[in-house]
UniProtKB/TrEMBL annotation, chain A:
One of its GO terms (biological process) is iron-sulfur cluster assembly. It comes from the Bacteria. This is Fe-S cluster assembly protein SufB. Residues 208-442 form the SUF system FeS cluster assembly SufBD core domain.
């Protein structure tokens, strides 16, 4: 049996090979370490932003500085805001073909398989490297239908009215400390607009890559789905392995209007030195459906609770969450459903896996406001422990102010049974193969919701986590 | 002349669980082309023997050897034994939620095939599907079986059929069937037995563990052994099974007690 250190090294080397490689730092601009008014103004100046956005940032900075660190959730005591670089501009301009990118950045995305995926099964791709989106594409036929898929900075310049109308309305800058931080220093991210009745049948994908050490990435995404429209947005993320911490703190705001549907899928695979502290929230209106599919495999610490505010009757929210906490990781994830209107429904299904010194926590909220009668809400959280050492915990909050409601909650904790391992091994599977098969089976209710390519990717990532886990 | 190596051989096997000895000196030799039945009352150690042969980690071996193709497999993990061509049809197969029969079998079949026949002998998805369809048909199992989760919500009969299906797919050279007849009605028993008979060939061997003689009407053994108190007390031909059916295990107990004294 290998020691935890050796295992960590082995896992590290496998991540290193596939995702953890790093490019030399060749940047157009890199802000100095630390955060103050000057840095925020510098970012805004480089982006040549309108005054309203600069004011928005500065106000948010005040909120950020004023707010204390959260004392609940994961341990953030080692996160040092003074050691982080808040803005890096990697290239002079964005490309609309991969060939336009600097060689090293193009190679990075090649190695991550993004251009290939784009050719095979995506309708549009955005690729962010450090603070800026360096590549963007959208199929012509979708452009003709009025679909907009650009990076957020471009949206501020080219669609100021739309951005001004919605930006910061779903996640206000003072919502929480990290939303305030993002609002102050945000850069990159996606802007998606789907006009009334348009169905984008093939997913749009954004890929986020951190390359430098001690850097923060603060993308900002805004998705507007007009009545009767549909879109599936997918994001993936990786980073090289460093001993010093990096910070990823995104804000995602989504508006799903009457009868529309939005699905937002995340495969988060940050390296194990990244603090991943993200605020994701959607508002769903009459008969609209919002679905978050959230896969968290990487990072040192993740705190993320995708939320749906159910604003009008018939609105439906769903969170499908998978978290894998390997050695040294803490995945504090879950979902929030806020029933503002009557006749709304929601479901949260959370599956977590803990291995070694890993800790997976489910943290969720179901809130039913007074007057929101005939609400149906269901929460299922299942935890799987892979060994004696691993840890899981559950924090299911319920705030129900209305009586005519139907609320369900189930939670299970199970361990991988020796009998299951033995059974599969007796058929020729190695212990690691048997383990990943059991884990993949455990999360199957969620992977079956993913497009095939992502389901395969998720299963492969889990297999990668299992290798080196048995000695 | 080189000495003959039997396909499977147990020598003076002492084994148990949590320090409690259950098998107290088992000896057994099985050649290719042979079917052996191992009978015995409950608690005599039959299933323990099956688990020890397959390499269950909870069982401890205190003494003796298990030789498969001349190699002592006791030091090998269960998956290596399987990849060498050994197989156990479980009495109580475990459910694996979320894993379809087809996905599981494809991985299992290919890891065994690669180990036994060479890296390039894995089946393509197409070849695999064809083989699976063929074997499902042979065992009169519905095609939807392939997309069900492994043993989850299976009836007793379905579980036993699924075990034989796995055996059919993995093509072992030595298979232990642990109480495959228990929980089967007569039609299901016949189907399962027919399947086993079709799979059996002169290049392989079977050890059929059973409490009752019933299954031996369908799978005809060449040899019958009776286990008592962790030892093989009596061995004989097929007629021994019939005698047992008639006279019961108490008869062997008396015989064995006499022989021992």
């Amino acid at each position: 049996m290998a020691t935890p250190e050796v295992e960590l090294k082995r896992l590290g080397s496998e991540y290193a090979e596939k995702y953890g490689f790093r490019d030399p730092e060749q940047y157009v601009f890199k802000a100095r370490k630390g955060l103050d008014r000057e840095v925020v103004e510098q970012i805004s100046w480089i982006k040549n932003e309108p005054d309203w956005m600069r004011e928005f940032r500065l106000k948010a900075l005040e909120y950020f500085l004023r707010r204390p660190m959260p004392t609940w959730g994961a341990d953030l005591s080692e996160l040092n805001f003074d050691e982080i670089v808040y803005y890096i501009k990697p290239t002079e301009r964005q490309g609309s073909s991969w060939d336009e990118l600097p060689e090293h950045i193009r190679r990075t995305f090649d190695r991550l398989g993004i251009p290939e995926a784009e050719r095979k099964f995506l309708a549009g791709v955005g690729a962010q490297y450090e603070s800026e989106v360096v590549y963007h594409s959208l199929r012509e036929e979708l452009k003709r239908l009025g679909v907009i898929f650009v990076d957020m900075d471009t949206a501020v310049r080219e669609y100021p009215d739309l951005v001004k109308q919605y930006f910061g309305t779903i996640v206000p800058p003072n919502d929480n400390k990290f939303a305030a931080l993002n609002s102050a220093v945000w850069s990159g991210g996606s802007f998606v607009y789907v006009p009334e009745g348009v169905r984008v049948e093939v997913p749009l994908q954004a890929y986020f890559r951190i390359n430098a050490e001690n850097v923060g990435q603060f993308e900002r995404t805004l998705i507007i789905v007009e009545p009767g429209a549909y879109v599936h947005y997918v994001e993936g993320c990786t980073a090289p392995i460093y001993s010093a911490a990096s910070l990823h703190s995104a804000v995602v705001e989504i508006i799903v209007k009457e009868g529309a549907r939005c699905r937002y899928t995340t495969i988060q695979n940050w390296s194990k030195n990244v603090y991943n502290l993200v605020t994701k929230r959607a508002a769903a209106y009459r008969d609209a459906t919002m679905e978050w599919v959230d896969g968290n495999l990487g990072s040192k610490v993740t705190m993320k609770y995708p939320a749906v505010w159910l604003m009008e009757p018939g609105a439906r929210g769903e969170v499908l969450s998978v978290a894998f906490a390997g050695d040294g990781q803490h995945q504090d994830a879950g979902g929030k459903m806020v029933h503002v209107a009557p006749y709304t429904s929601s479901q949260i299904i959370s599956k977590s896996i803990s291995k070694g010194t890993g800790r997976a926590s489910y943290r969720g909220l179901v809130k039913v406001h007074r007057g929101a009668h005939h609400v149906r809400a269901n929460v299922v959280c299942d935890a799987l422990l892979l060994d004696e050492q691993s840890r899981t915990d559950t924090y299911p909050y319920m705030e129900i102010e209305e009586e005519q409601v139907s609320i369900g909650h189930e939670a299970t904790v199970s361990k991988v049974a020796e009998e299951q391992l033995f059974y599969l091994q007796s058929r020729g599977l190695t212990e690691a193969e048997a383990m990943s098969m059991i884990v993949n089976g455990f999360i199957e209710p969620i992977t079956k919701e993913l497009p095939l390519e992502y389901a395969v990717e998720l299963n492969r990532l889990i297999a990668l986590e299992m290798e080196g886990s048995v000695g | 002349m080189a000495e003959h190596t039997p396909l499977f051989m147990i020598e003076n096997l002492h084994a148990g669980i949590e320090g409690k000895e259950i098998l107290r000196g088992v000896n057994l030799v099985i050649e290719r082309g042979e079917i052996h039945a191992l009978m015995g009352p409950n608690g005599s150690g039959k299933s323990t023997l099956a688990y020890v042969i397959a390499g269950h980690p909870n069982y401890e071996v205190y003494e003796g050897r298990i030789l498969y193709k001349g190699e002592n497999v006791l030091e090998l993990p269960p998956d290596e034994r399987a990849r060498m061509g050994m197989f156990l049809a479980f009495q109580y197969p475990t459910a694996i939620p979320g894993v379809t029969m087809a996905n599981f079998l494809r991985l299992a079949v290919n890891s065994v095939r690669k180990a036994r026949y060479g890296e390039d002998k894995a089946l393509t998805p197409r070849e695999f599907r064809r083989l699976l369809r063929e074997k499902l048909e042979m065992l009169r199992m519905d095609e939807t079986f392939a997309s069900r989760y492994l043993n989850e919500g299976f009836s007793g009969g379905e579980k036993k059929r699924a075990e034989i299906l796995q055996m059919a797919m993995l093509e072992p050279e030595f298979a232990v069937l642990d109480e495959t007849d228990s929980g089967l009605d007569i039609d299901a028993l016949r189907t399962v037995a027919d399947g086993v008979n079709q799979l059996f060939n002169s290049n392989m061997a079977l050890l059929v563990i059973t409490h009752y003689q019933r299954i031996l009407n369908y799978i005809r053994p060449h040899y019958v052994h009776v286990m008592l108190d962790g030892k093989i007390a009596v061995s004989g031909g097929p007629e021994l099974a019939e005698e047992l059916e008639e006279k019961g295990y108490d008869w062997v107990k008396t015989q064995y007690a006499e022989a021992a004294s």
